[in-house]
Amino acid sequence: MKHICFLLIPSVLSVGFPDLTSDASTEKNPFVIPLRRESVPVKRFGRTVSFKTSYSGLVKMGTPSQEYRVVFDTGSGHLILPDGRCQTDACLNGKKAYDMNTSSTGVPINSRGLVVPAGRKRPSVNIGFGTGGVNAQFVRDVVCIAPDLTPTGASTDEQTEQPPNPDLESVEEDIEAMNEEFTVKQSQGMEIVDNSVEGEGCVTMRVLVAMEMSTNPFYYFNFDGILGLGMKNLAVQDDFSYFDVLSRSPHITTSHFGVFLTEGESETEQAEIAFGGINRDKVLEEVKWNNVVNVDIGYWQVRIVAVRVGGVKLDVCNDGTCRGVVDTGTSHLGLPVPWNEDINSQLTSKADDYLDCRLKGGPLLEFELDTINITLTSWNYMRRLPIREGIQVGSTHGVSDAVPPSPDNTANGSLMNSTNSTSNETEDEGNTSAIDLNATNVTRFCRPRTMAVNLSEPVGPKFFILGEPVLHKYYTVYDWEKLRVGFALANNHRNTGPPVDPEDRGVLPNDVELLMQKRQVMMIEEDDDDLSDSDV
């Protein structure tokens, strides 16, 4: 068994927005997949104190095709779906499972792509997401992102009809022939890309089907699985990397994909991911490219020249070893230990009478890259809801390689992080020490959306995670061929709309209860029968 650890809608549109750096006369339009934004309350003592978010879109797999909702995650390297045989709680909470026996194009394989004969034990692999993970087997099948999602050639009845049981010896001969052909092509340096698959955006690729999924983070997902878009070194083999296979297919001519994430503040904005270019309508400026560093590790890492808080340069990057991974699967900023404590302290302030901490203002947080300064305001980096003193929201572990990944583990922390998961609700994570819920003389704080990162070399130690706070403000582009990441101000409501009203203190979401955030009106027995309000 192998062990690998990684840091983790309605239709597909094809739109005519050329990539900013390629020849518009020869390129194809990108496939643009709408992403659904979901929020789930984080609860302490049964009361809402924060929210988690996720962005997911639809892909189809198998013949006849089945639809699955996945998170597109630049911090991991595989397409992972729950297998129909998985019996862990995370697989049985409403996820749609993959059943290879119902797909005429599904084949059991090993990690090298060789077909596993019937009756033989199928190999498996452990994929770690922080201190959680999955145990998965390997299959090869058709995966599609485009409107024509079902390969043609046989009728639906023919595709679903179970073939007769052939002689076992003939089956073994067929498998040996398939494996021999595969081995010859592989020895000649040829990666197998099945261009005979019908349907725009359809490719044959290798997929991981989970036999076990850890409770955290997978139980809390409302989506079915993960489509990893990390560089191909994050995958077991190249043909497990969806975008690597797609980039070698005739379906796209530009080996870029672009990500546009929304904050959910405007009903007219739609999050999306574009394969084969970018949606130029979603950017306000030219893309500024930054080369990927430490390519062999497999993450979309860029060099961080300096970090500044309130215009003051910190000493964390003085030795030139700071790097930041651009991660669509993490809703927070990851800050390396021990420098996270100083940065958090500078960004934290008393909430006073604010109900929305993003409106309160605070020092600018800057990440200076080779070609652009990523500049975040309090609107970008601050948690929305004030947090009462003594309450911890988020993981106590952060992202750490101190604990080996295991499907039995339920601790938080990952690039595909449980802080980015979603469910009907997440109960009582973090610090649950005794707190007087009836106290009136309490202090509330505005705290940043950050988490600790504690990773050893070669990934760490000065390793930042540039998650949603960056991706909400900037459109990001990932160049598979030249291995670089591009940033441009996103054309969204926050970047183009009016400035924040300095008198605005914000409002609470309708379903937020009053433990951590709100001022509660209480009856005090006074001679004059006044009403007095106190902080909760």
Polypeptide structure, described:
It contains eight helices and 32 strands. The strands form five sheets. Strands 4-5-11-6-10-9 form a six-stranded mixed β-barrel. It has a single domain (2-155, 208-401, 413-419, 439-498, 507-522), classed as Cathepsin D, subunit A, domain 1. The chain has helices at 156-160, 168-187, 215-218, 242-247, 339-347, 378-381, 468-471, 493-496, and strands at residues 2-6, 13-14, 31-44, 47-61, 66-73, 79-82, 107-109, 124-129, 132-144, 202-213, 225-228, 256-260, 271-275, 288-291, 301-303, 306-309, 312-313, 323-326, 333-336, 349-350, 365-368, 373-376, 387-388, 399-400, 426-427, 444-446, 450-454, 463-466, 474-479, 484-489, 519-523, 531-535. It is mainly beta and 536 residues long.
Question: In terms of topology, how is this protein built?
Answer:
Blueprint: E1 2-6, E2 13-14, E3 31-44, E4 47-61, E5 66-73, E6 79-82, E7 107-109, E8 124-129, E9 132-144, H1 156-160, H2 168-187, E10 202-213, H3 215-218, E11 225-228, H4 242-247, E12 256-260, E13 271-275, E14 288-291, E15 301-303, E16 306-309, E17 312-313, E18 323-326, E19 333-336, H5 339-347, E20 349-350, E21 365-368, E22 373-376, H6 378-381, E23 387-388, E24 399-400, E25 426-427, E26 444-446, E27 450-454, E28 463-466, H7 468-471, E29 474-479, E30 484-489, H8 493-496, E31 519-523, E32 531-535
Parallel strand pairs: 1-8, 3-25, 5-11, 6-10, 18-28, 19-27, 24-27
Antiparallel strand pairs: 2-3, 3-4, 3-13, 4-5, 4-9, 6-11, 7-9, 8-9, 9-10, 12-13, 12-29, 14-30, 15-18, 16-17, 16-21, 19-28, 20-26, 21-22, 23-26, 29-30, 31-32
